[in-house]
Amino acid sequence: MIFSTFSFLFCFLPVFFLIYYLLPAKVKNYWITLGSILFYSFGEPIYIILLVNIAIANYIIGRLYTKFQKDNRARVAWLVVGLAINLGIFISCKIMPDYISSYVKVTTVYHIPLGISFYILSCISYLVDIYWGKATIQKNFISYFVYLAMFPKVLAGPVISYQNFSGQLENRTISFFNISEGILLFGKGLGKKVLLADNLYPLCSQILAADDSSLSILTAWLGILAIIFRFYFDFSGYTDMARGLAKMLGFYLPRNFRAPFSSRSVTEFWHRWNISIIRWFKRYIFYPLNGIHKGKLWLVFNLLIVIAAYCFWRGFGWNVIIAAVFYVTILLGERFVWGNFLKKIPRFLGQFYTFFMTVFVFVMLSHPNVSSALSYLGVMFGWGRYPWINNETIYFFASYLVILLICIFISSHFLKHYKESLYLYYPKIYHLLKPMVIFIIWIFSIAFLMNSNTIPFLCFTL
């Protein structure tokens, strides 16, 4: 089930929350579990069995920790078993099908289980956190299942460590303020998805489907700009909706994006983009390897390990690997060579530099293979006899210029600055305008959904 559908907005959502608020606190987690299973079953009726079995396996391994608290070897052994089970399932469900299909012609279409990239990280987080002693073992299976598969976050996060989530399972606040804030946050995300990302879909699909020889230089740049904004507003829109739903349930989920295009360096960009995933890899891979305090060579080695792990999670492919190596090179360059220079130049130049570096990565990741990505880059930089502009360019500019300008403004530092200034100096006006604007977004989003087909979230492909 997709958040931006009428079946979710007008059937599942009102019925689920009406019953949830009427139920006593003791059984709310049971209702969340039932609702999450039903929600997941709408999209993957077969793979709900896989999700439940993974939850049972990790829950049992966690409970076995209690029997071997004084035997560290046994605890390590069970941790290794748990990690092997999770990684084995992940490899067999996501990595192997991609690997096989790239070398063998397969007639059967294989669907990767929805959300497996995200809930496997939650499973690992649970096992490692209780092994480190940073969280207590969860004895209630229903509570554990809520952490793993709560419907707002099961498909695409945001990922939150068990240590930071466990306290909310039995003690959380459901208030009118949280419910209203959750509704506003969900509406904000719905607008990002429906009004911005989905409206850029035709432009992205047409340009990516076109033969590169038919493109002009400006069309290619327009296309990659649309691809970047579509992915950003699609993924950040999903995150806002997930956080809003969680808030209505009484839970807190972390932010995943913090105005990434206002970054003045690639290093800063990765502190603002897909934050929960980056934080997970730092917490469970980079910091345990003591990646900062053992010298430059060890830092480089650890970065390569983290990037390799991220590529493994994201899905191997030469285009993914090349993009990752490029980013590692830039990150190391900023840390040891030109990082101080970036701090001294005007902000807008740093933002331009960061966006320019980001363009290369999105070109690599938006194309199925390296050759098609390089061909597209060739058009963008005029490596051949490509015209600057053609009739297609004029048509695309006339059709999508307004929405692209809106995307640029919303994602820029200026809107963030204006919002903060309004909140600081005119808080009453801010609190009055905010619900009015979100209400208008709700109305326009629903009106758009009535006249368009449902477009799945891009983050479901991760």
Which key features would you list for this structure?
462 residues, mainly alpha, 0% strand
Task: Name the structural class.
Answer: mainly alpha
Provide mean pLDDT, rounded.
Answer: 88
What count of helical segments does DSSP give? 19
**Beta-sheet strand percentage?**
under 5%
Inertia-based shape: globular
The largest sheet, given as strand count, sense and whether it forms a barrel, is:
none
Number of strands: 0
Instruction: Give the uncertain stretches in residue-range form.
Output: none
C-alpha Rg, in Å? 23 Å
* Assembly context of the chains: single chain
Please give the alpha-carbon distance between the first and last residues.
Answer: 17 Å
Residues in helices, as a percent range? over 70%
Topology:
Blueprint: H1 6-22, H2 28-43, H3 48-65, H4 72-103, H5 116-132, H6 141-149, H7 162-165, H8 176-209, H9 217-249, H10 266-272, H11 275-286, H12 296-314, H13 318-336, H14 339-344, H15 347-366, H16 370-380, H17 391-411, H18 413-425, H19 427-450
